[in-house]
Amino acid sequence: MIIMKFGGTSVEDARAMKNVMEIVSGEQQRKPVVVLSAIAGATNALLLSAQKALDGDLDKAHIELNALLERHVLLLENLIDDRSDIQQLILTIRKRFDELKTLCQGIAILGELTNRSLDAVASVGEQLSTMIFARALAEQGLSVELIDARTFMMTDEQYASATPIFDRIAAEAAVRILPFLQAGKIVVTQGFVGSTIKGVTTTLGRGGSDYSAAILGAALNAEEIQIWTDVDGVLTADPRIAPAAKKLRVISFREASELAYFGAKVLHPSTILPAVEKNIPVIVLNSKRPLSSGTRIVADPPKSKVAVKSIASKKGITVINIQSSRMLMAYGFLSSIFSVFQRHQTSVDLVSTSEVAVSLTIDNSSRLEQIVSELRAFAEVNVYERKAIICVVGEQMRSTAGVADRVFHALNDIPVTMISQGASEINMSLVIDEDAMVQSVQQLHKEFFEPVPELDLFEQVDA
Ligand code: ADP
Ligand code: ASP
Ligand code: MG
Q1: Displacement of CA 57 from its chain's centroid (Å)
Q2: pLDDT tens digit string along 271-313?
Q3: How far does the centroid of ligand 2 lie from the alpha carbon of residue 268, in Å?
Q4: Which CATH number fits domain 2-230: 3.40.50.720, 3.40.1160.10, 3.30.70.100, 2.10.25.10?
């Protein structure tokens, strides 16, 4: 069996969904489990409506919800032929939106918006897209089973970024999904959405449908996990930043993990782990160009001479510089620093140390004030906001001299705040001002990929 995950733009309207239906029916023999995202923009709209309700602006909340309702109605009217099917679906969808409006009213009255409520609201996007898609497939005469992800995607209670409980998921998925696949049905389910053991809806965090696909792939021992999106595969950089970006034919699990972690949005950062554990290849494909071969992410790709394979970047980074004259002698100093971050559930991305100072970066600054005030109890602390991380990645960086020289040559006079060579030795990360991010990525891209260093590895992306 295979997992086929389609992201928001792949199901954004009737045309896109028809495309997806064709792709899925072409793979019917391989027993597909189809994992869908919400239609493009739906999750943002849902979260915004909850936020507007919290601000006491119920009118705005309703406007958002009504616009989203209309998009879904339009989608199914253009996708499904049978009038009575359409009527029935519209009734169900309207009911879901009525429930959402009631939820928003509650949020406005209480003046409180918990992550638990946010998950209840956000999860509706995937419930709607899968409902419409499954019905459309069935109308084509295909044998389909729509399975609510909350019956198998068990998670802890950390709402808004819940952690999956792998053994429970494997056990539930075997019972809830396998019999339908064995009976020759195409299974359709929601990405992003999960449930606590007690049955309360959770989500895996933004962009989490990729993660759902990988979790499910590992749980069901899939032969491959396909991630269908709006670009040809994993590229040498974000094409929105570097339009000349080329597609990589194949990369390693390690490279993909580093890229995802440092901002390559094409994959959710946790996606690779479940695939690595079961050694299941992940293939990133373009739903608008299904014949293109995509990027294969595998354990051991053929060796390549190219040092740098891709450049990731992410904005919204905060650098915290911690100095203490006592540090030189005090063992346990680093652990007291990290325990502050642990207490505030804030993960640290990059660290660089000298004898008297530690610099580190975080991308979630919601607890910044508390963190800084606790650190100040034992050290001098400086904070630099609006920074960006740029990360160059490649397995062969380990054994290639001169990558750092080329990076600094390419960046020319763009000031670098911090440098970190990853412990895995397959990446090098730099912190720069956020405003310099686009230019830096473009200059690095020119240096490493224009022209392409090895034709076998890279492929031109057609417009
Ligand atoms: P989906 O809705 O299918 O999950 P996303 O928007 O989450 O799609 O991810 C796809 C986007 O990721 C692309 O449109 C592209 O702009 C961005 N992206 C960032 N870095 C890369 C990269 N290295 N390779 C490919 N795409 C990238
Ligand atoms: N719909 C969710 C989001 O927008 C999950 C996903 O698309 O991966 O974050
Ligand atoms: Mg995504």
Answers
A1: 30
A2: 999 999 999 999 999 999 999 999 999 999 998 889 999 999 9
A3: 10
A4: 3.40.1160.10
